[in-house]
Amino acid sequence: MLEVIGWLAGCLTTLSFVPQVVLALRTRDLSGISIRMYVAFCVGVALWLVYGIYKPSPPVVAANAVTLVLAATILILTIRHRHQS
Fold it and tell me: Domain limits of the chain?
């Protein structure tokens, strides 16, 4: 049961980033995105990923690997947008 809770929590928190990524890719409006917040968040997610690998915890690994890709996408788009402006 605990593993199911982990998978459900991972899916919900990871999927919460999908609308932000889709909106960022579609509109290219990244003016409200904080680079510092996304850097800190990406580092935190990367550390959770390492934790999940060493634990080992498949729900933690899967959720944080996908979340890191999504959050890093937003971070990279934001950095590129600010340098082009």
Answer: 2-84
Average pLDDT on 3-22 reads 93
Residues, the chain, total?
Answer: 85
Q: Cα separations (Å) of 8 from 13, 22, 48, 52, 54? A: 9, 22, 17, 16, 21
* Residue closest to 71 by CA, chosen among 4, 1, 14, 11: 14
CA–CA gap between residue 26 and residue 56 (Å, rounded): 36
pLDDT tens column, 42-63: 999 999 999 999 999 999 999 9
CATH class of 2-84: mainly alpha
**Predicted model pTM:** 0.89
81 near 29, Cβ under 8 Å? no
